């Protein structure tokens, strides 16, 4: 009997222990599951809400991100421009022990997953433990990052979001601190998301670009797109020194294009081959509809191809490039490919070597020419015709840059100016000897009226003793000159920057380059000249970056202070001083330009 009681007691004890262990395991599993990243919904970047400024977190507002450049930073950490970071900026130059601190005000007590968007370029191409790159603390307590991994990236334009660890946010202020273990990362943003599937009513949305229906050719560069597979790479051949590299089937990128009206536009694309003798296959879609176009042969140099007419819808449109097979570099899409004239630009240049030549005229290289080529060997009866296509009627002032050998006389004795086949009277404008065929000057030929559509502007030669470099069209004097509308030499290039006046700035990657701003005014005047710029570096004076001339006069800028704007997205204005503008054409010339300065615009008042 006692033996049976002992057996029953043993079974009871075993059952009790089993129940306790099972309950404990269930509890532990539940806790672990609540702490697993699998229990937190995933979202696309477009669904995030940007709380970088407010520093608030609301569990009912879906995933929320906080730009790293808006956090509290240690002194040695640098904010660097990065064209594919979420706000075109990221943190770099981490030294061991440097910290970034995020203070978040939570509306409730809630568990949230911490994610880090960063670029980690690994020689091995393998992911690494997050704890080997940085430490993490929350509300002054060190947090074990456990099995959290940081994915390897292709280059520093390639950012990936990495889940780290869940934290328990308390109502009110919470402090997250990341401490660097070395200069391994570029950090874009920190994200928090609760385990609800809510989406914010004011998400970031996709990167968008705008189509201006009355403007000239519009370029949509790779880094303005949403990438799904391709990576942004540095590319000296590309228009803005970056391109998208396609290497795998079904890699794609998409532009979200806003149009104020339904509009037909001629489109183009600029591409180049990645591997010799391996032609790729690709497809292009507008609003998910396949575009039928002639697929030309790509080469190792960039080529512009015409896609034909596209019909944009009013509102949002999607333009997608998809790799089917092979590797290639994508520079940009072009809309209004056939439109050359912009009514909003102060100045436009048309190179003579791109004009149509009839009965003489030869394109010849000349290292002092506007684009290093001129048209010479112009003979009697030679005809040079420029095409100017505009979407609006417009009146502009015309200058022709030429060299001329001969006695001074009315310009209509040397050539006849024809606009759309009709003669323009230029008898009141005198042409004078320039002192040699290698000496070029600007000849003013009055105001002309452009019609909607294609306009032809031709010079029919009577004498043949002149060479042509280019023609310029000007609107009357402007109080603001956008740097990207200036004349750039080979060292300068235009790049996008969302905080610039027209989202474009001029940068340069070669020292001793030149930027020339031409300005036409109807009367002589004095104006104050200011420059809007972005610059990261030690405070210095303006003369350390360029020499400045107004027409032929050297302007003293030794005492004009140039202070760091701290960030590439921050712009400052510097007052250069008073300059004299002559009636007619004026030039503001920045020569011996050094790299490191981003110029947005010049202001004259």
UniProtKB/TrEMBL annotation:
InterPro entries: CBM6, Galactose-bd-like_sf
PROSITE patterns, per the entry: CBM6 (PS51175)
TM segment ranges: 7-32
Domain CBM6 stretches: 348-474
GO molecular function, one term: carbohydrate binding
Highest taxon above the source species: Bacteria
Keywords from the named record: Membrane, Transmembrane, Transmembrane helix
Protein name: CBM6 domain-containing protein
Organism of this sequence: Treponema rectale
Lineage of producing organism: Bacteria, Pseudomonadati, Spirochaetota, Spirochaetia, Spirochaetales
């Amino acid at each position: 009997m006692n033996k049976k009681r002992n057996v029953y007691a043993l079974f009871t004890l075993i059952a009790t222990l089993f129940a306790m262990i099972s309950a404990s395991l269930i509890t532990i599993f539940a806790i672990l599951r609540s702490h697993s990243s699998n229990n937190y919904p995933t979202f696309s970047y477009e669904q995030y809400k940007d709380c970088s400024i407010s520093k608030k977190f609301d569990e009912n507002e879906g995933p929320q991100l906080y730009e790293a450049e808006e956090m509290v930073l240690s002194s040695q950490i640098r904010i660097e421009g990065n064209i594919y970071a979420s706000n075109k900026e990221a943190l770099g130059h981490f030294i061991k022990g440097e910290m970034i601190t995020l203070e978040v005000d939570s509306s409730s007590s809630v568990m949230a997953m911490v994610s880090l968007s960063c670029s980690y370029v690994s020689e091995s191409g393998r992911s690494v433990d997050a704890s080997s790159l940085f430490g993490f603390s929350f509300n002054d307590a060190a947090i074990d990052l456990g099995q959290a991994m940081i994915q390897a990236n292709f280059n520093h334009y390639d950012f990936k979001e990495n889940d780290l660890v869940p934290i328990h946010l308390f109502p009110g202020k919470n402090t997250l601190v990341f401490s660097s273990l070395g200069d391994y990362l570029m950090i874009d943003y920190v994200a928090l998301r609760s385990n609800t599937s809510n989406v914010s009513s004011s998400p970031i949305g996709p990167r968008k670009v705008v189509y201006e229906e009355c403007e000239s050719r519009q370029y949509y560069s790779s880094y303005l797109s949403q990438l799904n597979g391709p990576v942004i790479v540095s590319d000296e051949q590309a228009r803005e020194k970056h391109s998208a590299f396609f290497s795998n089937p079904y890699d794609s990128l998409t532009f979200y294009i806003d149009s104020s009206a339904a509009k037909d536009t001629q489109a183009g694309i600029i591409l180049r081959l990645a591997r010799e003798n391996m032609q790729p296959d690709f497809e292009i879609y507008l609003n998910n509809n396949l575009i039928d176009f002639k697929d030309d042969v790509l080469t190792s140099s960039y080529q512009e191809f015409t896609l034909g007419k596209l019909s944009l819808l009013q509102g949002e449109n999607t333009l997608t490039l998809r790799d089917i097979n092979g590797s290639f570099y994508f520079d940009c899409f072009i809309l209004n490919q056939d439109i050359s004239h912009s009514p909003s630009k102060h100045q436009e240049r048309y190179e003579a070597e791109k004009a149509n030549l009839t009965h003489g005229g030869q394109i010849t290289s000349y290292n002092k020419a506007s684009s290093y080529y001129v048209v010479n060997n112009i003979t009697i009866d030679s005809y040079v015709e420029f095409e100017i296509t505009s979407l609006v009627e417009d009146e502009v002032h015309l200058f022709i840059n030429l060299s001329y050998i001969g006695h001074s006389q009315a310009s209509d004795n040397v050539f006849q100016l024809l606009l759309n086949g009709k003669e323009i009277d230029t008898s009141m404008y005198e042409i004078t000897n320039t002192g040699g065929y290698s000496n070029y000057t600007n000849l003013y030929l009055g105001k002309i009226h452009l019609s909607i559509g294609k306009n032809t502007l031709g010079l029919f030669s009577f004498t043949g003793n002149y060479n042509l470099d280019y023609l310029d069209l000007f609107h009357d004097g402007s109080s603001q000159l956008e740097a990207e509308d200036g004349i750039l030499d080979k060292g300068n290039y235009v790049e996008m920057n969302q905080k610039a006046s027209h989202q474009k700035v001029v940068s340069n990657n070669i020292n001793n380059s030149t930027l020339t701003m031409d300005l036409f005014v109807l009367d002589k005047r004095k104006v104050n000249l200011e420059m809007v710029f972005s610059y990261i570096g030690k405070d210095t004076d303006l003369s350390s970056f360029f020499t400045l001339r107004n027409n032929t006069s050297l302007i003293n800028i030794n005492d004009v202070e140039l202070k760091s704007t701290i960030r590439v997205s921050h712009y400052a204005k510097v007052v250069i001083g008073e300059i004299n503008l002559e009636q007619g054409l004026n030039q503001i010339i920045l020569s011996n330009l050094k790299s490191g300065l981003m110029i947005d615009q010049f202001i004259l008042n």
